[in-house]
Task: structure prediction
Amino acid sequence: MNKNPASQNTVRRSSAGERKPLQSTSLRTRLLTAFALLAVLPVLITGTAAAFVSAQGLRNAVFDELDSVATLKEAAIRDWLEVLQTSLNLVYENHQIEQGVYALLQNDQELMLDQDHLRRELSRFDEMTGYFVELFVMNTDGEIVLSTDPSQEGKIQINQAFFQNGLTGDFISPPAYEVSLDSYSIVLSEPIQTSAGKTIGVLGARVNLSTLSEIMEAQTGLGEAGETYLVSSNFAALTNLKHIEFNLGETYIRTRGVTNAMMWKTSGTDIYTDYAGNPTFGAYRWIPELQVVLIAEHDQRTALQAANRVFQIAAGLMAVTALLAVIIAFIVTRAITTPIANLANVADSIAQGNLDLRAEVTQRDEIGLLASSFNTMTARLRELISTLEQRVRDRTRALATSTEVSRRLSTILDRRQLVSEVVNEIRNAFGYYHAQIYLYNEETRELIMAGGTGRAGAEMIAKGHKLLWGQGLVGRAAETRKPVLVPDTTKDANWLSNPLLPDTLAEMAVPIVTGDTLLGVLDIQHNIPNGLNADDLEAVRSIANQIAVALQNIASTEHVAKRANQLETVATVSTASSAVLNPDKLLQTVVDLTKERFNLYHAHIYLANESWDTLLLAAGAGEVGRQMTSTGHAIQMDAQRSLVARAYRERNAVIVNDVHDDEGFLPNPLLPHTHAEMAAPMIAGGKVLGVFDVQSEQAGYFKEEDALIFNTLAAQVAVALQNARLYQEQAATLTQLRELDRLKSSFLANMSHELRTPLNSILGFTDVMLEGLDGALTPYMQNDLTLIRKNGQHLLHLINDVLDMAKIESGTLSLNIEKFNLQEVVEEAVSIAQPLAGEKALEIVIEAESGHEVEVNADRIRLRQVLINIVNNAVKFTEKGRISVRAVREANNVLITVKDTGIGIPPSHLESIFQEFTQVDSSTTRRAGGTGLGLPISRRLIQMHGGRLWAESAGVNGEGSTFYIFLPIEARVVEPEMIK
Result:
């Protein structure tokens, strides 16, 4: 450390040797000579050239001052324009505004926001900045489709320069008078482009000129005699004027300064008459961005008057100064030279390396201050030398710590363990107060604390402590991607304190970055003011770079492991599903395995029902899934707020990584913790069989690679489902064939029984009449003939049923559609059944709430036949009680209900009664006759109308059964073969 001062001293002595002739004259003599010259020469020079130099200098000073003021004002205007352009660009920082504007311009109904809501968002942004009086959006036809001023919406601006230029780039229009607004304004515009670079509209903002007046009226340094103002390209004054009454758009200025700037589009200075007729110094600037002239003026008489007064005072002072300088010089020089000489000797000794020498401080002036500075410098040099070795040791320790951290990072593949060990290693090695690491979540733009030292770190991690983008030092470091250092937190007004770390007095935050990707932030805190410096920052930055590499390696390892596990899971699920031949069991197995193996919040499968245009939930994981399945949960295929329906319609996987920000998400109260969802269509043989839907509690959980995995899994499940269905259909076909054979036998037995009885009666009574046992038509003969007719009609009815069924099966039965009052048909059916009900003392009624004015378009005869069949069927199987009929309209449909109090139908037979030749009681001893064709024929006829016929019953004698006919008001005729 002593070599360097010595070398400096050698150079200093050499220089002194070269200047030796100059030192032959004493310092005292030189000071006396200098004082004399300083006193006399200014007087002589000023006296000879005062008139010319003073006037010229003052004028130049005024011009310089005006030019400086004009430059500052011009810069202020350009800064203001940049702020306006920047503020306009910030409109898209609001995600809702960006999404809503893009949806509005592209007519995207799914993403489009409410117009009033979008306008309020724009107005809120406008109020926040305070720079604009109107924000508006134009489509490519120049029409204002959205504005914070609703009265401007719909106006066509296609011929406006701000629209034409705004299509290609940022544009600022010159101030112009707008008749519709009755004011001058400046319009900023810029193109609105899609991610592909296509221009779909123009974003505009109208700026009020009041801000320009504020800039011009701000403190100029010209005093009361000066002013600055702006003039437009048509010579109209744009800002307030001092000397005349100013009306925007009505006051015009044509001074020489304005004319020169306007004509030559240049800047300069001149002396001319101002707009009020006063001689003035003027500086003018042409501002091409706004095509306006900036004028700075100072009254000539006021400026020269001040200069004359200053000149007179200066001349008197120079004369006095010359006289006093000679008198005072001798006294002052002696007082100065003596302590300076002593100080020079001390400085020379210090230069020789004698750092223990101290200069004697005998005066409390500059020389005394210089002596104190020498003493302070000597002390600091001693301190620097003593601490240099310590700093070297600290730097060595930092390098060792960095090396140790690097070694440890290369062996850790667990993210939580990595951040925990790193922060503790850093704090222990450097003796910091606290160290912590935040990891960045790109989806939520949040910095989540992942590791921290001590009790405070553990408590913050337990509470899920996190910071928003730009919040505190950590947020600022993340936002700027640059380190942030606060040596003394008590002097930083923007520093964000933490009650768990009350002793923090210095803090620095270093971003953890790899390439252009932000991974997190390493935050260091010290309890010593200025305890963190550039050396600490450099060491921590090196460690942060190593952490970034380690985190990237962990992410890559996790990604590979996740993909391997997913592929293994797909193979497992596919193997398990291919071994199950029951469709319901297959789907339940798939969703349970998928939820477990993929570590999902929920998984379920919807199957397509094209007849009802719905996606019916077929299987769901866990108790929630089974509960939803049991309630018959379904989604309409055209539902807009459903990811499942979208995946079905688009035939592609749909991913939403934050369902709370997606308007198309349909929430489910049984799954309140869903944050991310993916729906993949189940396609087999080019047909979408259903949708495989999975959900996660973590936002941002699903990636595009996951979509490929689940598309594969969904396709394999679809094939397995199709195979299971084919297997079941084959098994069902075999069962039906066997049942058909049995039914055929049963039909023949029933028909034999039903036909034989009336035929025997006919033949028996015919024989009686032929033998003449009854004679003429006596009352007995009349009774016999009545019985013959009754049985003949019964036989005819049976034959008609068989014929109807044959026509339906062969596809030859057609409907005769006509418009009629439904209540009339209901009354006819009840009237026909009334005699049969009277024989059993049954009450048959039409309920009071039945609609009397309901009209339908249908086949009246066939609908009457159906009602008669159902009502007669109710009478046939009811021994006591009542039968009620009701017909009510429901939207564009009608619901007919026939309820009895008969023997009821077992739930297991509710569908079999609609099969041909089937009855609940098929024994030869059954109480009610019939072939079992009435209900099947009725169902087929209703289906041909586009409706449904079904029955409900608990199977309890006395509670009876209820038959329902659901029929469109306008019959949708379906061909019989399509019903099979």
